[in-house]
Amino acid sequence: MGIVGLDHVQLAMPRDGEADARSFYGAVLGLVEVPKPADLAKRGGCWFVGDGVNIHLGVEEPFRAAAKAHPALLVDDLAATREYLATHGIKFSEGSPLDGYVRGDIHDPFGNRIELMQKL
């Protein structure tokens, strides 16, 4: 046995949150929405992809945002990303030191934590 990669990360969202998900993950983060398989689409939610990133949002009831568990997305320029996010009203919190990285956190419209990391 050997793990060879990571296919996707799934985050929870409340029912009928697709428009907010599209605005944040698509319009702001620049990920592309891809169709969910028909059997899964009837449950709600959205799937997004980018370079080496697959994020699935699924409806969870009752909904509870992930405050600790999170995806960590690599960015090429954290300072520029932070400035860009500020223009969209997205708050950025500095991360604690981690050898080889600068990092910080943002939250999606549902309160899920997302870590942003830049390799030094």
Automatic annotation (TrEMBL):
Instruction: Extract the Pfam families matched here.
Output: Glyoxalase
Query: What sequence ranges are listed for the domain VOC?
Result: 5-119
**SUPFAM superfamilies to which the protein is assigned, alphabetical:** Glyoxalase/Bleomycin resistance protein/Dihydroxybiphenyl dioxygenase
Q: What is this protein called?
A: Glyoxalase
Origin organism is Tsuneonella suprasediminis
